[in-house]
Amino acid sequence: MRLDKLLELEKIGSKRKVKALIRSKQVTVDGMVIMSENQNVDPAVQDIYVEGKKIQRHSHVYYMLNKPQGVVTAVKDAQHQTVIDLISLDDQRAGLYPVGRLDRDTEGFLLITDNGQLGYQLLLPHKKVSKRYEVVVNERLTTLDSQAFAEGIVFADGKKCKPAKLQILSSEKNESHAHLDITEGKFHQVKKMFLSVGKKVIYLKRLSMGPIQLDPALGLGEYRSLNQEELQALRPYFTIHKKEKSVEHEI
């Protein structure tokens, strides 16, 4: 939520007064004086003070969802159930959306929020937010595959992926298990990366995004609000930034 909008909701005063307070350095966020009224803020994550008084309102919601297969990562879809449909009506609110994208046949962690600016920051390519996946492929994985991922996989069209970490957990002739860490999100990236080394992904699950890991207690299709520790881990993505570059498509 914009800082000026939050202060107006808190009945701090008129728009003119709010601007005056900001310009007179009476507003701080996490100990820093804020001079821009359009800064994205959230009292659930940050310490916001106006004239020495802390703002307590929680303006956004943050849900961790364990996405099941067969559900599309979208707000609305005419044919398929969406991840937003998995959120109970009591927990839904205007602007709720999934941060990033998982294919319909991919399971695992999704952050669902109504904080658009936070989602924008998490998806910016230069932020290099790491995503970890559990992957099962139909061929034997070798150290040569790990080296290829570390050097940066090159697709058939010449596009090169950023270096990625492939940790082989088990390797058999007809099935191998691994963890993959990537810091970008090209369309169908994980599947294309493995195809580039001659393997087909037969199961894919996201385990984490940035500092937040999927709660193993969550069953498929279940969700919960982020706890305070997880919210605090997101603090770096609420910092002040100049105009950012456009985001890439998530997987």
From TrEMBL:
| EC number of the protein | 5.4.99.-
An example Pfam family from this entry, by short name, is: PseudoU_synth_2
Query: Per the database record, which ranges form the RNA-binding S4 domain?
Result: 1-56
Keyword Acetylation attributed: no
- Read off the PROSITE patterns from this record: PSI_RSU (PS01149), S4 (PS50889)
Record-annotated membrane-spanning stretches: none
MF terms (GO), sorted A to Z: RNA binding; rRNA pseudouridine synthase activity
Q: Name one GO biological process term.
A: enzyme-directed rRNA pseudouridine synthesis
The superkingdom listed in its UniProt entry is: Bacteria
Family to which this protein belongs:
Belongs to the pseudouridine synthase RsuA family.
Q: Which NCBIfam families match?
A: pseudouridine synthase (TIGR00093)
Would you tell me the protein name for this molecule? Answer: Pseudouridine synthase
Source species of the chain: Enterococcus caccae ATCC BAA-1240
